[in-house]
Each structure stands twice: as C-alpha cells, then as structure tokens.
Task: inverse folding
C-alpha cells in the first residue's frame, strides 16, 4: 500500500467511530486518556473526564463570546496565530455556526452560567456547592442542540489545526511523553482528537456531529503524521 493510500485509509478511519466488536466504549475512551498524564503532588495521574469536559467547554464558550465581539483569540487554549491560515478558515466556519443560533449560543456562553453540583453538609441538607462541576447532566444540557455539537466539532478541528505535540501539551495542560516527542506523540494526539469528537459526546448519550464530506482543511493536520519518515524517531523513545 502506498503512503498516500495509507493516509487516505487513516483519514477515513479517523472520521468514523472506531468501535471494535466486543470492546466496550468506556474501555476505549479510558485507554485514550491513559495515553496522557499529569504530575500533581509528585503523583502521576491520567486526565479525568470532568477535567477534559471543563477544558474544552470553557474554551468553546469563550470562543463564541469572542466571535460575538468579532475578536480573534490571542491567548489561552484558543490562541490563534495569524500565520495559521487553516485555523482562520475553521474559525470562520465556527462563526457561521454561531450566526445560525446567536441567542442559543449567547445563553450557553455567558460567563455567569457556571455549572454547580449539589453537596451535602454535616446535617445531610442539600446545598449548592460553589465549586464548578462539568458533570454528565450539565454537559448533556450544553450539547443537547445539534448546532452546538456542530460548532463544537469545528472547535475541536480548530484546536487541532496544527498537530504540534508540545503546543497541544500546553493547551491541555498535560503531557503525552516524558522525554522528547516522536511520531507516537502525533498518534496519541490524534486519538485525543477522536476522543473529543466522538467518545466524549457518545458518553453523554448523544450523537456526535460528523460533516457530510471531508473538508479540505482537515487534511494538513492529519498529513503532519506523514511529513517525516517513521524511522527518524525510532531512537527517540518517549
């Protein structure tokens, strides 16, 4: 199989859910999260579901507020480099999504609409905790609308418009390896992209958005996997 055909097959598999018969979805999604780690209090931990939900939903909400103000993001997870033409194209697609349902996105994206979870005090009385919680109920409400899931699909494409492992480690605040990045790191981040596109949404009992056709701006991010010979990184273990 030629490298081009191999890339095409990979692309098709990338956009379709890659469930395997007899393998539970929650097993696959936990395996993807186990490819990454963070160090806290001298303990290595894998990213939790709620952390990932929090990271990307807050970023998505912020992106829609910036679209409303007609400003381009210059910092945080949404930082957009002017030289990244692909990201600019995807940002425009997100802008088009926003204008389909402006009032709906505005209601979801206001800064004072932080999720809260119920906790119990010592007298077993239910109280609202001030701690934010991106639990299943909140996320189901957030992604209930198909147009929001469509916008979020393109938001994930925006975050991964350039598959740069170190840049993605900074954006998500966890690591894919302990030493120097190699081709396995690129693969890990594409699995994380799949996690955000598909598994995170399916885990909420919702249907992930998938475009009817593959847009041209998806290809360069995937092609970065094939921009170097695999053999170049064999002596560079993670």
Result:
């Amino acid at each position: 199989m030629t490298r081009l055909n191999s890339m095409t097959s990979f692309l098709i598999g990338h956009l379709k859910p890659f469930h395997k018969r007899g393998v539970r979805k929650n097993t696959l999604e936990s395996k993807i999260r186990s490819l990454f780690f963070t160090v806290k209090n001298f303990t290595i931990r894998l990213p939790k579901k709620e952390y990932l939900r929090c990271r990307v939903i807050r970023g998505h909400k912020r992106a829609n507020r910036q679209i409303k103000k007609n400003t381009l993001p210059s910092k945080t997870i949404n930082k957009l480099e002017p030289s990244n033409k692909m990201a600019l194209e995807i940002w425009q697609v997100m802008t088009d999504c926003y204008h389909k349902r402006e009032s709906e996105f505005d209601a979801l994206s206001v800064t004072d609409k932080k999720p809260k979870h119920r906790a119990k005090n010592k007298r077993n009385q239910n109280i609202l905790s001030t701690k934010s919680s991106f639990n299943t109920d909140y996320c189901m409400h957030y992604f209930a609308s198909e147009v929001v899931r469509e916008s979020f699909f393109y938001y994930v494409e925006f975050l991964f418009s350039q598959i740069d492992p170190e840049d993605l480690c900074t954006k998500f605040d966890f690591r894919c390896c302990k030493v120097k990045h190699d081709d396995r790191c690129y693969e890990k981040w594409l699995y994380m992209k799949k996690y955000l596109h598909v598994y995170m949404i399916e885990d909420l009992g919702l249907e992930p958005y998938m475009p009817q056709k593959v847009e041209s701006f998806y290809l360069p991010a995937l092609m970065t996997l094939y921009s170097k010979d695999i053999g170049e990184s064999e002596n560079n273990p993670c």
